[in-house]
From TrEMBL:
Domain SMP-30/Gluconolactonase/LRE-like region as annotated: residue spans: 98-389
SUPFAM superfamilies cross-referenced by the UniProt entry: Calcium-dependent phosphotriesterase (SSF63829)
Keyword terms: Hydrolase
Name of the molecule in the record: Gluconolactonase
PANTHER family found in the cross-reference section: LACTONASE DRP35 (PTHR47572:SF4), LIPOPROTEIN-RELATED (PTHR47572)
InterPro entries for this protein: 6-blade_b-propeller_TolB-like (IPR011042), SGL (IPR013658), SMP-30/CGR1_Lactonase (IPR051262), TAT_signal (IPR006311)
Amino acid sequence: MMPESVAMPPAPLSRREIIMGGIMAGVGMAATGTRAHAAAPLAQPPSVVSIPARQWGPGAPPPYLPDPDIIAIDPSFSNLVYGNANLRLAWRGGDWLEGPAWSAEGRFLLLSDTIRARQYRYLWETGTVSVFRPYSYNSNGNTFDAEGRLISCEHGMRRVVRWEHDGSCSVLADRYHDAPLNSPNDVVVHPDGSIWFTDPGYGDTIVEGHPDAPGGRANRMGRERWTQDGEIVAQYAGHARQDDHVFRIDPHSGELRAVLTQQQLAGPNGLCFSPDGTILYVISSGPGPGQDGPGGDQRIHAFDLHDGELRNGRIFADMMLDGHQLGPDGMRADIFGNLWCGAGGPLGLCGVVTYSPAGRMIGRLRLPRGVSNLTFGGPKRDTLFMCAADALFTLVVNTQGAGLS
């Protein structure tokens, strides 16, 4: 037994007691009139909306972590992004990049430049970009089928083509009901092998294709010289618009069938399937050249798919953010059924928005300009490639892309 005059050493304080002690000390100082020093505000990293704004490219300073332009709206989004990854400017050099598609066999990303009428190849190992096809007839959407063959939508020739393994080109669709197509835009392959594509009139312009012949919907007054710089186009391509459609090409017979009309969904643009192929998502964009009326509603629509037929059409997402109507364009699904959608809009809102399978916006990626289209790629399919005007951005994510490309 210890003598009463010897004091016991104090027991070590727990973390909670230390914290509470600090709180109580602050309360004590306040009660005695002693003023504590206020904590200095923490520095904020530059972002898309900061002044000065975030810098991009090789000359930019080292990026900050976590990336200030990766924004989780719902906690579930944090499980889909990798906290140690930054949004990155991978390449600049196009005019209007579209149709990114990943070739698993070639380990490269294919890109369309609809204005320059070229296709580019981005190599995974080196990050270099080269011309893949020097003239692509203003191709837009691309995808690879289960056999690794490239399928492209051509604005200039107003057709959908497939490049075979021997280098030959097969025309999959260029007419419907004895009328030429408009400007096939986006294309996806269903697990059953069928090919689905949208056919609005966005490419019926001088810049991204060619206008109609005089009197057509995209050249009603006949002032546009639609035959210039396109002897092949003038001779063989379609010269007059028809209504917008979403089409399906049968994998066995090659039959072209309209699955959605302009009256059912105006301004069809980007499209993709749910991971199990039971839901088709279609973006309805604004009016195209020569289109009468208000055009599409700038929303994402969903349809149940059964035996090649679409049912139960509904609005999946309204694309509203902070009171602004975003302009959706292209989208892809990840393996968990979330939709990653490229969108245009005001600076600070444009970029990519992500929706859960229930249609709830759960996160977004801020970029300095709107994103026209995107896809998942890389050997693990865990890199998001985003086309934004003349630039290609990338982000390593903690999920993988569903489907073929």
